[in-house]
Amino acid sequence: MASTAVTVKDVCPQEFIATYARFLKKTGRVQIPKWADIAKTATYKELPPSNPDWIYYRIATLARKVYLRGGDGVGTYQRAFGGNRRNGVRPNHFADANSGNIRYCLKQLQSLKVVEVDAVKGGRTITATGRRDLDRIAKSIVEKRNSAKN
């Protein structure tokens, strides 16, 4: 039976992000900053994330976003992770996410050689090594799902 190529686009996003986050935590190559346990992901949030491994999930999400659409910068990802600022009795308005968390996660991906700065457009693009690693994780998800069916 010939195996077909599996990419990140072929698997469920939640499943991919959770699997890649577990992989990042298991490898231990990601440095967790001191401020990770008290930092909020956006100014409009009332509390920091309840998951202690939130930074691994944010890194995995950013890796997937760069994979799908490279050339975007921190500002684009701020808007992607932004949300509704609740203004009490006044109407809600959209607010961007914090750029420091996003920038730190992108730098960690750069140190892992998953993404690089695009010299032409600016922003970040996926490297060949990063594409191979993410596709390998996507393939393991599909193989696990297929073995569970049989």
UniProtKB/TrEMBL annotation:
Molecular function (Gene Ontology), one example: structural constituent of ribosome
Family assignment from sequence similarity: Belongs to the eukaryotic ribosomal protein eS19 family.
Keywords: Ribonucleoprotein, Ribosomal protein
Pfam annotation, one family: Ribosomal_S19e
Protein name as it appears in the record: Small ribosomal subunit protein eS19
GO CC list: cytosolic small ribosomal subunit
Upper lineage: Eukaryota, Amoebozoa, Evosea, Eumycetozoa, Dictyostelia
InterPro entries, per database record: Ribosomal_eS19 (IPR001266), WH-like_DNA-bd_sf (IPR036388), WH_DNA-bd_sf (IPR036390)
Domain of life per record: Eukaryota
UniProt cross-references to PANTHER family, sorted A to Z: 40S RIBOSOMAL PROTEIN S19
